[in-house]
Structures are given as structure tokens and as C-alpha cells.
Amino acid sequence: MPFTTLSELKTRLDAGETTAVALAGLYLDRIAEHNDNLNAFVHIDPAHVLAQAEASDAYRAKHAPRALEGLPIAVKDIFCTQDGPTQCCSNILKGFHAPYDAHVITRLKEAGAVLVGKTNMDEFAMGSSTETSAFGVCRNPWDTDRIPGGSSGGSAAAVAAALTPAALGTDTGGSIRQPASICGITGLKPTYGRVSRRGIIAFASSLDQAGPMTRTVKDSAMITAAICGHDSMDSTCVSDAPVIDWLGSCDKTDMKGLKIGKPKEYFVDGMDAGVRASIEEALRRCAELGAEIIDISLPHTEAAVAAYYVIAPSEASANLSRYDGVRFGQRCKDPEDLLDMYTRSRDEGFGSEVKRRILTGTFALSSGYYDAYYIKAQRVRTKIRQDFIDAFEQVDVIATPTSPITAFKLGEKTDDPLTMYLSDIFTIAVNLAGLPGLSQPCGFVEGLPVGLQWIAPAWREDLILGAASAYEAATDWLQIPAGFGGEA
Ligand code: GLN
Fold it and tell me: In the chain, at which end, N or C, are there fewer CB atoms within 10 A of the end residue's CB?
């Protein structure tokens, strides 16, 4: 039962076979049993979860159920919620209570969802392993000596271990797709502008986007349908975004006529041979389902990581300047003067990876270096975007590995930021180009999950959902529950 999909839970709720209170109890029990080991949740308030579930059952007794009525959904600690703390897993926000709900949280509540708690993440979403969290590392349910990916590692681990049927994450350079891949679940980053960023603690505003992390493709579609749409209070949330049939797109069982691009730059030396073999096998499967696999090139891919690690830290250095000891969270003791307060509050509150990003970003934006770094990175970004536009003249969707490697051991890369940054080599270009991307399970290497990434033109999540649903229907990777916590 706990490993059931969100859609199946909805069917059972709608048929009166279970209740929101029963489901809340089931997942709260699993959290109580397994969270000490995994550290997937950093905040949980069982009484509040049960109260929401009771309210949902009461609503259902009187009205037609809403889209996510009674369904438990966890959210990353980056989403502002009026209930409970919002800390972005940083000491600088320790004890911070947001005065309002993020737009997507309001949307989930309006759809009748039961919010389960806050999940662990890399501090300010900066990382690929959830090891920079100020609240302790999170562990991978497939092997608890390994990382769950990041930065939405808590959300991924919680779904993989069935501590919740679904969760929200955010993706600035891969933080939904990479942990989804590493934990063997599905994660969707919508087109930039599809989902409001209001009330999501900003990392890099031109790249950040929220999205679902679930077992199945359809579950991801269900959640995105509920959270997307215009928000007049986020000027980057597009008001006339093309409407798609989120659930209907998931009915596809074949790929007849679908042209899938296979970019040569995403099959490189240095990637894990097992990962490569899994992706090649997945593409063979797609061909059997009727797709045409076309070799393509995205020539500027190689520059994506470098451009991202100028643009994202630059935006972060500006966004994080607001944490100065005055308005939010951490303030140092007995400051001598204003400057001392700013300096020591920031020094005490931020972890070392966040400091590294702020320093890199401040440097890249400083006069004299701005043209050489920031402007140049923006030019590269335009070229990367153009690569995709050119490729989509030839193909409908693009398929790649999500991550070049499977889950690595905790601590293995913490002293080496550059190799850590390379974990995102296959996800970052999608954010730079503002495109939708999805990762879904496509096999195992030595017992660790591998993810297949789908990329589509802007606003064409329907193409991704169709292809990924057809692949999902033709394979049975989802039938294998994470070894940890085992029973299906
Ligand atoms: N791992 C990338 C980084 O460290 C991406 C993070 C994200 O998408 N939030 O910046």
C-alpha cells in the first residue's frame, strides 16, 4: 500500500475504500519508522497533518472532491509555508516562519492536498547531494551509505522510500531531475514561467522552477496541472502560457511517428558505462515502440556547466544579500556596529558552499570582471538556447541520461566542488534554455537506479509526458521498490 501511486490512491479515495485520515496515518507511521535513518524530512507536525486530513474528509463528505483531495504531498524546505518553519536547510534561516504561503502551496491547498512536512535539501538548493544541508545529510533509500542526489534529495528519498506518495522540489540546474534519477523516481521540471516562483526562496531567479517528484509520469502531471498557471505577483510567470492536456497526455502507450533526438554530446567518455548501456537499451525500447531515433548535435553543451556556474552564483549573490541579520533569522551576538553585525551574522549563518557561491557571484558581477564573466556567460546561454531551437527543427523530443553516474558514497565528493558540479552536466543546459525536462527510472547499475531524461521545446510538456508514459507502460522498473523499507 505505501508504494502505491498518487493516482491509485485518488481512485481508492474516490471509491470510498480509504480516507484522507487513514492515508495520513499510514505515511506518518512510515515517517516515524524510517526518517531517523533517512533524514528525508526536516520538519513534521503529525497533529497538523491529521487536522488537514480530517478537514479534507469533511470537505469530501459535503462536496465533489477537488483534484488532489486528501492526497499527501511533502514539500522541500525552500517553499514558504505559513504553517511551521521555512528554513531552506540553512542556519541563517533557523527558526524563520514565513508570513505567507508560496503560490504553489496555496494551489496545493486549494486542490485539497494534505501537506505532509518539509523535506531536506542542500542549503539554499546549492548542491547535488543534499550534503550541504545545515540539518544533516539525507540518505538514499536504495543504499543508505550513499547520497540521494540534490538539491531536492529529501523529496526524492521520501518518495522513493514511500514516506509520502509525492513531493515538490525545485530545479535551478537539475535539482528535481538529478535526485529523481538517483533515487529511482520521476521528476518534472516545467518550462520556465509555467509555475509561479512567488514564495519560493530564490536561488537563481532566471533559472528556478518548481515541480513534482512522484512515482509515475501521470502523478507528476496531476500535480503540475494543479500548481501551474498565471500569478500576477510573479512577473516571470507567463500569463498566456499554452494550455496542455496534462492528464490526457499520459494515455500514450506507443511512440509511433515520434522523432527522438539523441545528442552526441550527452554520450561522452567519463560517464558510467552502466548508465550509458541503460540509456542505449531504453532508446532501443523506444524504437520498438515506434519512435525514430535520430542522432543530433547540441554543439555548445560543453560550455553549459561553466556558464551556469557564473550565472547561478551571480544571481545568488544578489538574492542572498537580503540575509544580513536585520530582517530574517540568524543575527550574531553583541555586534560592535552595523558592519560587524552584517559580517558576522552572514559568516555564522551561511555554510561553506553558499559562501563559495556568493563570493564567486560577487566576483563575476564586479566592475572590471562583469564583461569577461557575466556577459560572456549570458552569450553562451543564448547559444545553448539556439542549439535546442535548431535541434527541435529536426526532432520532437530529446532523450539523454539525467546524470552521468549513479548515487555516490556520502562524503565522496564533498572536498571536491568541481567534480560535484560535474554531476549536473546533463541537466543544466535545460535550465539555461528554460525548457521542460523530466527524469524517469530506466534501469539499475549494481542495484542503483538510473534515470532517462526527456527534453521538449518550451511549453510542450505534453510531448514529454506522452513519451515518458509510453516508456513507463512498456517497462516495469516501477514494480521494484527501494530495498530499504522493502514491502510493496
Ligand atoms: N546542483 C546544482 C547546483 O548546485 C543545481 C542545484 C539546483 O538545481 N537547485 O547549483
Answer: C
- The residue whose CB lies within 8 Å of the most ligand 1 atoms, and thus the one to mutate among 130, 133, 424, 453, is 424
Ramachandran assignment for 223, one of left (phi > 0), alpha (psi -120 to 50 degrees), beta (any other)? alpha
Out of 128, 151, 181, 317, the active site residue is 151
353 CA: nearest ligand 1 atom: 4
Q: Which is it for strands 186-189 and 209-214: parallel, antiparallel or unpaired?
A: antiparallel
Mapped onto helix, strand or coil, the DSSP state of residue 42 is strand
Cα(485) to centroid of ligand 1, in Å? 28
- Encode pLDDT of 320-377 as tens digits: 999 999 988 789 999 999 999 999 999 999 999 999 999 999 999 999 999 999 999 9
Distance CA 439, CA 436 (A): 11
Residue 413 is a catalytic residue = no
248-265 confidence digits (pLDDT tens): 999 999 999 999 999 999
Element (H, E) at 221: helix 217-227
Q: Are 71 and 21 in contact, with CB atoms under 8 Å apart?
A: no
Decide whether any atom of ligand 1 lies within 6 Å of the 151 Cβ: yes
CA distance 11 to 237: 32
What is the pTM (predicted TM-score) of this model? 0.97
Measured distance CA(376)–CA(307) in Å, rounded: 8
Q: Which residue has the cell 544578489?
A: 318
Query: In Å, how far are 97, 285, 289, 354, 404 from 467, measured between CA atoms?
Result: 41, 11, 10, 37, 21
Identified catalytic residue from 7, 10, 76, 118: 76
Distances (CA, A) of 209 to 125, 228, 229, 429: 12, 11, 13, 14
Question: Structural domains in the chain?
Answer: 6-251+437-479 (3.90.1300.10)
**d(CA 45, ligand 1 centre) in Å:** 28
Give the span between the Cα atoms of 357 and 316, in whole angstroms.
Answer: 7
Is residue 232 among the annotated active site residues?
no
CB 325 within 8 A of CB 341: yes
**From 121, 175, 178, mutation site for ligand 1 pocket: most ligand atoms within 8 A of C-beta:** 175
Active site residue 423: no
